[in-house]
Design brief:
Keywords: DNA-binding, Plasmid, Transcription, Transcription regulation. The protein has two domains: 58 residues, Arc Repressor Mutant, subunit A, CATH 1.10.10.10; 159 residues, Chorismate lyase-like (Chorismate lyase, 3-Layer(aba) Sandwich), CATH 3.40.1410.10. 26% of the residues lie in helices and 34% in strands. The chain is built from eight helices and ten strands. The protein has a six-stranded antiparallel beta sheet. Strands 1-2 form a two-stranded antiparallel sheet. Strand 1 and strand 2 form a beta hairpin. The longest helix has 13 residues.
């Protein structure tokens, strides 16, 4: 399964995206046909392939192109891939900000902030899990403002921020925690890409910061070049 997964990511199969039949997979790896079927079933459960009875297994072309260094929101990124975005609120609570959050939001040490965890989905498939931090009492009522769809953009607009700009961001690859793997519906042995970032208003003042974990094999990141004159 791991080998086929890697080959899918590097485009090792034909233009139609057809994988070898389970009998060929079994022969190649020297395993039983049942074992090869299990491997293909796991890939299908991960959303990487679809199995069509009578035709075979085909690669699902649903890896998202995701723009990081731009003012494109999560819903806009998903819609640009002709997929349907959605978010789920995992939890929200007031908590004492750590050093990183205080630095990002220019707050005094140990300030209480609103911590909001969200799961971002594309066509119902989880692709990003984020923990977001906002200043209190500045953003009191933010969770209610998001509504049942956990619409961050609507909530931000209600607080007077129709548009935000990306500030400093750091991106690393790492292994997920048990909770992250469960929420992203992936194996704990598969890496995630973590982005720690702050977003600012038109005057460059920090509005919120967040730590977002992306399912690495479901995302293809695109970094935009700087605008002329910037």
């Amino acid at each position: 399964m791991e080998t086929l997964h890697r080959e899918i990511l590097v485009g090792a199969f034909d233009e139609e995206g057809r994988l070898p039949a389970d009998t060929k997979v079994a022969e190649r790896f020297g395993v039983s046909r049942m074992t090869s079927r299990k491997a293909l079933a796991i890939l299908q459960n991960k959303g990487l392939i679809r199995i069509e009875h009578g035709r075979g297994a085909f690669i699902e072309s649903d890896v998202l192109e995701y723009r990081l260094a731009s003012r494109v929101t999560f819903p806009q990124n998903v819609r640009s891939n002709n997929q349907l975005p959605s978010r789920k609120l995992i939890y929200a609570e007031g908590r004492q900000a750590d050093i990183w959050v205080c630095s990002c939001l220019e707050l005094a040490p140990k300030t209480t902030v609103l911590s909001v965890q969200l799961l971002g989905e594309s066509n119902g498939r989880p692709v990003a899990f984020s923990t977001n931090f906002l200043e209190l009492p500045r953003f009191s009522g933010f969770v209610e403002a998001m509504g049942p769809e956990a619409d961050v953009e609507i909530a931000m607009a209600k607080f007077g921020f129709a548009s935000l700009w990306p500030g400093t961001a750091k991106v690393i690859a790492r292994m997920p925690t048990e909770e992250e793997a469960k929420l992203l519906d992936q194996s704990p042995s598969r890496p995630v890409v973590e982005k720690k970032a702050v977003e600012v208003d038109a005057d460059g003042r920090p509005v919120w910061c967040h730590v977002t974990c992306y399912a690495a094999d479901r995302i293809q990141f695109v970094f935009d070049g700087a605008e002329p004159g910037k």
